[in-house]
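2024-03-11 09:14:02 INFO worker-7 job=invfold-0412 stage=load source=structure_tokens
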């Protein structure tokens, strides 16, 4: 069958298996092109391994460091004429590439919040991979069923201090409009912290440590975002920001818990990128479109794999003390938050409208990156050709 993108709002309901494979291969080649990463991990566990920063982390560990990797993801296979999710195809592509190079690889599909998946991971590590020296927590989910209480929590994207109105972008039509987000309730704030905060990360670390599955000197890292003034009321000062604050506090707690094995815990603050999650956040598609234009013009734009490759080479495994800010966070958003970049973004933001989107932003770059998430628009892929049934 010929597979084409079917876009509904901020979702694409199809994924191209050959395109997804090509995307993974591109990322692998990027890491390889920079040579081996000195002093990198030998065994890695990646929660949220199938897309975005989690997938990039697994690729950097495997193909930059030669690490064996165990990954956990919640992806769906193809069924009844419907393609699989992009993460399903990307995980398959990663495993095929790892197998060719003789690298240990295994992926567990299921809910990483659940006790069942945690138990399966522990059993697999004990029987196959052993203690890990890198644990990446890159889980992005809208809902969490608490493994102890059984309560289902759903995250929301709302401001905490007051309703917030600003410009937003429909990246499909290119229309700029205004949107107002209403104030979150205290329960919505708590639910978002339960889903996106650090409790589950801490549960994983506690479990791994209790089972002697964190090697001496192990590093664990989770990912976060801060962002500029224009997104602050709804992001960093909103419900998601409350969850990220909790995540960062958890890193300090874990740092103390890992002292006896000389381990370390960090939150890495990364730059804004086109992801399935960011596409759903009002204001972010417009901000990212403007940011891309500015950073590309300055020659400092990075995609997901470039960010994580830099994290491994210039931060986590640079040798000696890992560089952080005064709050102990690794700052990979340093280029995005440069004063000259943000000043130009602010200047463009003030006058941006539907009529001048092309000149004031990189809308096409945003659209291209969005389609790439699902395996479309990858160089060298014939999208007019039938995709063999065995690949779907």
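2024-03-11 09:14:09 INFO worker-7 stage=emit residues=392
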């Amino acid at each position: 069958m010929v597979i084409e993108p079917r876009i509904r709002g901020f979702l694409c309901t199809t994924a191209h298996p050959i395109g997804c494979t090509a995307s993974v291969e591109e990322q692998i080649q990027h890491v390889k092109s920079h040579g081996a990463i000195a002093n990198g991990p030998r065994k890695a566990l990646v929660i949220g391994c199938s897309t975005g920063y989690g997938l990039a982390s697994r690729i950097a560990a495997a193909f930059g460091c030669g690490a064996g990797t165990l990954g956990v993801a919640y992806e769906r296979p193809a069924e009844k004429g419907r393609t699989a999710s992009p993460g399903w195809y990307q995980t398959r592509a990663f495993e095929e590439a790892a197998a060719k190079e003789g690298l240990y690889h295994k992926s567990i599909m299921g809910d990483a919040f659940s006790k069942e998946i945690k138990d399966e991971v522990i059993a697999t590590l004990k029987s196959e991979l052993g203690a890990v020296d890198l644990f990446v927590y890159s889980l992005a989910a809208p809902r969490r069923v608490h493994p102890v209480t059984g309560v289902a929590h759903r995250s929301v994207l709302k401001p905490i201090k007051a309703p917030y109105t600003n410009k937003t972008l429909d990246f499909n039509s290119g229309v700029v409009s205004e949107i107002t987000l209403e104030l979150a309730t205290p329960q919505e704030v708590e639910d978002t912290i339960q889903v996106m905060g650090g409790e589950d990360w801490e549960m994983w670390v506690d479990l791994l440590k209790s089972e002697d599955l964190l090697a001496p000197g192990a590093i664990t890292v989770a990912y976060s975002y801060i962002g500029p003034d224009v997104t602050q009321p709804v992001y960093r000062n909103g419900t998601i920001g409350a969850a990220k604050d909790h995540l960062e506090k958890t890193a300090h707690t874990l740092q103390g818990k890992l002292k006896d094995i000389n381990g370390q815990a960090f939150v890495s603050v990364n730059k804004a990128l086109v992801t399935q999650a960011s596409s759903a956040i009002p204001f972010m598609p417009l901000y990212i479109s403007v940011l891309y234009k500015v950073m590309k013009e300055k020659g400092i734009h990075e995609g997901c794999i470039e960010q994580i490759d830099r994290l491994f080479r210039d931060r986590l495994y640079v040798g000696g003390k890992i560089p952080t800010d005064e709050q102990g966070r690794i700052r990979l958003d340093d280029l995005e938050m440069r004063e000259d970049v943000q000043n130009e973004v602010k200047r463009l933001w003030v006058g941006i409208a539907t009529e001048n989107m092309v000149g004031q932003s990189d809308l096409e770059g945003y659209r291209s990156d969005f389609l790439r998430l699902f395996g479309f628009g990858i160089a060298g892929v014939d999208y007019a050709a039938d995709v063999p049934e065995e690949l779907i």
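2024-03-11 09:14:09 INFO worker-7 stage=report msg="The chain has a mean pLDDT of 95."
2024-03-11 09:14:10 INFO worker-7 job finished
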